[in-house]
């Protein structure tokens, strides 16, 4: 790990000021990705701005058919929230199966979506539910937020302050996890609600999470697993690695989609 200056601001304004004053500074949420990166000397920021001391970035509210989750809210807090379990049980269940206890109690929703790991669970939920990302400067629709593997629409120094989810009529998430890391080798989030029918895939795309338009069109006509018969996923858009080939991931997308539909009812 290289030497850096550590800051722990108490407000969003102070954090923004620190980041704006140092182009090589890096914000840190739960640190689940940044800390290992620093330890392996794969990153060399001049300073780290720890957001964990900012109370206004934490918390969950449900109002007017929308669930709003602060950017520094942990996965464990989402998983155990009675409000989330009632409004969007699929989201609470997704959070409950991220990583292990240590990851769930340190990792945050803001850090997860800002990092956009191609195997992370939350990007699938954002796209599947038609969520909105709130930052210290603007709001960004989930469809416009994820721009590629480990890439988002965030500008340097921009902080994810919250994510809001419209409450769906039906929704479910099915994941085929890597047995060691519990990252999604393939995860599929299906939802039917204010944004229509949406199907989002994570863990499989070469560019990260994506919406499966062919499945959406089929399910908009008939909300049933039988509507997915004959629908395939082009393999040239998928990721192949030591854990699973492109062919296997293409097959798993169909399997997880049908499981998610069964869970959604």
Describe this structure in words.
With 265 residues, this protein is of the alpha+beta class. Among the domains are: 1-50, Uridine Diphospho-n-acetylenolpyruvylglucosamine Reductase, domain 2 (2-Layer Sandwich), CATH 3.30.43; 170-264, 2-Layer Sandwich (Enolase-like, domain 1). It contains 11 helices and 14 strands. The chain has helices spanning 12-20, 34-39, 75-80, 82-87, 89-96, 101-106, 109-115, 122-129, 142-145, 213-221, 246-264, and strands at residues 5-7, 25-28, 47-50, 60-63, 66-70, 132-135, 139-141, 146-148, 151-152, 160-166, 170-177, 184-193, 196-202, 210-211. A hairpin with a 2-residue loop joins β12 (184-193) and β13 (196-202). The termini are far apart.
Number of helical segments with 4 or more residues: 11
**At the third CATH level, what is the topology name of the domain at 170-264?**
Enolase-like, domain 1
C-alpha geometry? globular
Mean pLDDT: 96
Spatial ordering of strands, largest sheet: 4-5-10-6-7
**What is the number of E strands?**
14
Residue fraction in strands: 15-25%
Précis, in short:
This protein has eleven helices and 14 strands. It has 265 residues and is an alpha+beta fold. Among the domains are: 1-50, Uridine Diphospho-n-acetylenolpyruvylglucosamine Reductase, domain 2; 170-264, CO dehydrogenase flavoprotein, C-terminal domain (Enolase-like, domain 1, 2-Layer Sandwich), CATH 3.30.390.50.
């Amino acid at each position: 790990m290289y030497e850096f200056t550590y800051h722990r601001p108490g407000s969003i304004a102070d954090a923004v000021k620190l980041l704006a004053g140092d182009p090589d500074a890096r914000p840190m949420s739960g640190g689940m990705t940044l800390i290992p990166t620093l330890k392996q000397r794969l990153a060399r920021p001049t300073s780290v701005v720890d957001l964990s001391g900012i109370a206004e970035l934490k918390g969950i509210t449900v109002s007017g058919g929308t669930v709003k989750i602060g950017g520094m809210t942990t996965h464990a807090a989402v998983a155990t929230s009675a409000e989330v379990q009632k409004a969007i049980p699929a989201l609470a269940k997704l959070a409950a199966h991220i990583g292990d206890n240590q990851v769930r109690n340190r990792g945050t929703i803001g850090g997860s979506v800002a990092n956009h790991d191609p195997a992370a669970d939350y990007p699938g939920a954002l796209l599947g539910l038609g969520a909105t990302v709130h930052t210290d400067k603007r709001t960004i629709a989930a469809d416009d937020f994820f721009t590629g593997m480990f890439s988002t629409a965030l500008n340097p120094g921009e902080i994810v302050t919250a994510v809001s989810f419209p409450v769906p009529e039906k929704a479910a998430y099915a994941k085929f996890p890597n047995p060691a890391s519990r990252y999604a080798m393939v995860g599929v989030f299906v939802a039917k609600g204010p944004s229509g029918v949406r199907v989002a895939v994570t863990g499989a795309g070469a560019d990260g999470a994506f919406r499966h338009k062919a499945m959406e069109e089929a399910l908009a006509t008939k909300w049933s697993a039988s509507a997915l018969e004959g629908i395939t996923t082009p393999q040239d858009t998928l990721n192949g690695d030591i854990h699973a080939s492109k062919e296997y991931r293409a097959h798993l997308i169909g399997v997880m989609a049908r499981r998610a539909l069964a869970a959604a009812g």
